[in-house]
Target: DASH complex subunit DAD1
Amino acid sequence: MSTNRASNANGAQAAPEKTYFEQQREMLVGEIAQSLELVLQNINKLNRSLEEVTQVGTEFAPVESLWSHFENVMAKNPNENEEGAQEGQTEHEGATEVTEHEK
Model:
């Protein structure tokens, strides 16, 4: 029994040395943990930037709508506007003629 106590006492007092593999593994695990932390920080920065971009994009929605309306007005065929104006003139002329006949 005294030998068991002696071996237990020695085992408890002196920690077994880690092998080269275990040392390298711990070092690599630490580096991986640091790298993952850095990746997480960069993803958070990217997320904030994307949120800011979408927020700015939604702020420009009324301006975009105004420019789209302007583009649609400018894109209309000028001949359509002239025909519409001529039709309107003939309608008014006819109305004027009717009132003149009534007099």
Notes: Residues 20-59 form the longest helix (40 residues). Helices lie at 2-13, 20-59, 61-75, 78-102. The mean pLDDT is 78.
